[in-house]
Write a structure and sequence with these properties.
The protein contains 12 helices and no strands. The protein is mainly alpha-helical and 277 residues long. The protein has one domain. Helix 5 runs parallel beside helix 8, helix 5 runs antiparallel to helix 9 and helix 11 packs antiparallel against helix 12. The protein is globular and about 65 Å long. It starts with 18 loop residues before the first helix and ends with a helix.
Amino acid sequence: MTATTVSTRGPSANMSPGFSTALKAEWTKIRSVRSTWIIIALALVLCIGFSAGTALISGLTFEDWDANAIETFDPVLTSNAGSLFGGILLITFAVTAITAEYSSGMIRTTFINNPRRSQVLAAKAVVVGLIGLAVTAVTIPGMFLVSQPIFGHYGLETASITDRETYRTLLTVILTQGLIYTLIPFSIGWLLRSTASAITISLGFMWLPWMLGPILPEWVNQNVVAYLPDVAANSLSGFTASDAAQYLSQTPAIIVVAVWLLGFILAADIVLNRRDV
């Protein structure tokens, strides 16, 4: 009696579905999972709620601020406080969109139905990236709009969404956070195939260098930390002051963000095509 080995690479690539079909399949899988909608709902509630709470606390404590705190107050930056929760939840969503299929074994079925692994990865990346952008397109303006009336009520400086500089900042944050916090963790999920490891590495990679920045030597901030994706995104949005050691001008910052995004996806694609599921 002989055993028959079923290849996870499935039928011939010529029998593979087109990209639009792969895209619909990935969208169907992601939207049919309850955790997707739970994460999105939590992102909306926590981001906007935390920013509203931060604005309220700022207003209640405003009279106790020193002159330097009052002078450096930024109504746009402060209104973005809830992005901490949004970033964590987007990272979790992007990682589990991949690792859940590995833990359940569904990834084998995916590659049997579509042996073009690069096409599967690309379709998943499009769906995950668009959901990330949809979330930030709601949460970023939502945090801003809920915070400004509170600032105004307590006599703090406010900003208008119709102001050109404010609009540019919000749009930049929507694009950078929506893509960086999804596509980089998404790629790490492919590389590690472990939910806990991928989330931990993603959180550390995104925020640890930025958190350690104040205690790192200026040379490290200028030549290393400044070229990390989340830090470069802060330069783009204007959240990093132009005289800070971590600051990059617009063109280098755009290049840095693009290289990191494409580099991670390319690395995931290479690894995915070289190993057996």
